[in-house]
Amino acid sequence: MRRDFPILHQQVHGKPLIWLDNGATTQKPQSVIDSISHFYERDNSNIHRAAHDLAARATDAYEGAREKVQRFIGAGSAEEIVFVRGTTEGVNLVAQTFGRQQIREGDEIVLTTLEHHANIVPWQMLAQEKKAILRVVPITDRGEIILEEYTRLLGPRTRIVAVTQVSNSLGTIVPVQEMTAIAHRHGARVLIDGAQAVSHFPVNVQQLGCDFYVFSGHKLFAPTGIGVVYVKGELLEQIPPWQGGGNMIRQVTFEQTTYNDPPAKFEAGTPNIADAVGLGAAIDYLNRLGMVNIERYEHELTEYGTERLQTVPGLRLIGTAPHKVGVLSFILDNIPYEEVGKRLASEGIAVRAGHHCAQPSLQRYGLRGTVRPSLAFYNTREEIDTLAEVLRTIRYR
Ligand code: PMP
Fold first, then answer.
1. Is the complex ipTM more than 0.95?
2. Cα torsion angle, 389, 5, 287, 225, sign
3. Which of 34, 134, 166, 234 lies 20 to 30 Å (CA to CA) from residue 208?
């Protein structure tokens, strides 16, 4: 299966590339790369507007990708799938449509300490605009949500809970299904940030019960510049459109505009057709492998990685929840994380060293950054062995 990923077969600084930066972005299988060239070689056209063959093919490919996403995350209908640029744009869309419409002065928005900046800043901007209040759920030393505190924070003014399903800095898998049920008992809506979840285990939005689910294609072995917002059907009509322009309208006069049906209502302008097709191809690829198989393999690899890293003298893992994906954040005694990152890079090992756009989650530990190897299904035990060996030499140089 590693043969499906051309980029993995290269040398960096004379060493075989070890790609352990999957939390930042994932590599693309040949079938995804081919789907994009195929689209530009044979089908390229704008969608919906023209009555010629290529327009029909491009439209079918784009809408076909939407249906693949629908099935992949278990949505009830393809209408509930809105294409955006990525998770960041998805959260902004929800904050500026649903949020602007529903949140008033004194209302409350509940976030957790684990959130990525993409699921903090849009809510903060909205809170400032509306004079609403942000409430933040604390975490334990292991990096788990404290559910009693969460329940305590919810109240009659809570309008939305915005929570990540998997922490990108600590790897914690958050009990979002349970949290959604609790939020709904208080009449609040729930947005789940699935950016770090969808590539690691099967996701079913109907089972989760959430109102919004957002993720980025590029973290799911698909291209950059394409992402998804799932909007629960009952909200599709109620929520106003976001950006105005072509495609999102039914009829325009200078006096008044009527809007298209969802999901087009939320997709102003020419969308990223080719990369949506690439996302569809990535989903086909993952379905062939089976998300359940991926989950099982990665679980073993994460346990192996955790054990191996713990044998490195002076290494402290940050984020030790028993229920986690393969994000192995750590610090090394007396060695700045930037230095560790550089040393690993010089050995062909790609990891992220920094705050991972989740500063509050690290501030909880009094840290500014960590070194973060993050695993995907194409990683191996041998790669982890090499990582641990190199880390030992950094420690004792
Ligand atoms: N949320 C989480 C949990 C993430 O890991 C990321 C990407 N690091 C984002 C949101 C933002 O995704 P993007 O940059 O693709 O919009």
1. yes
2. positive
3. 134
Quickly name the fold that domain 32-287 has: Aspartate Aminotransferase; domain 2 (3.40.640)
Summarised one tens digit per residue, pLDDT across range 275-310 is 999 999 999 999 999 999 999 999 999 999 999 999
User: Active-site residue numbers?
Assistant: 357
Please identify, in words, the CATH class of the domain defined by 2-30+290-396: alpha beta
Segments in the chain below pLDDT 50: 396
Nearest to 351 by CA among 22, 25, 20, 13: 20
User: 333 and 299 in contact (C-beta within 8 Å)?
Assistant: no
**Cα–Cα distance for residue pair 300/90, rounded to 1 Å:** 32
For residue 282, give the nearest of 115, 65, 32, 52 by alpha carbon: 32
Q: Which amino acid belongs to residue 93?
A: L
Q: What pLDDT digit, counting tens, does each position of 338-375 carry?
A: 999 999 999 999 999 999 999 999 999 999 999 999 99
Ligand 1 atom closest to Cα of residue 85 = 16
Give long-range contacts, CB 8 A cutoff, 24+ apart: 288-292. Answer: 289/1, 289/377, 291/201, 291/202, 292/201, 292/202
CA 152 – ligand 1 centroid, Å: 28
CATH 3.40.640.10 intervals, the chain: 32-287
The overall pTM is greater than 0.90: yes
- The residue to mutate among 22, 87, 218, having the most atoms of ligand 1 within 8 angstroms of its beta carbon, is 87
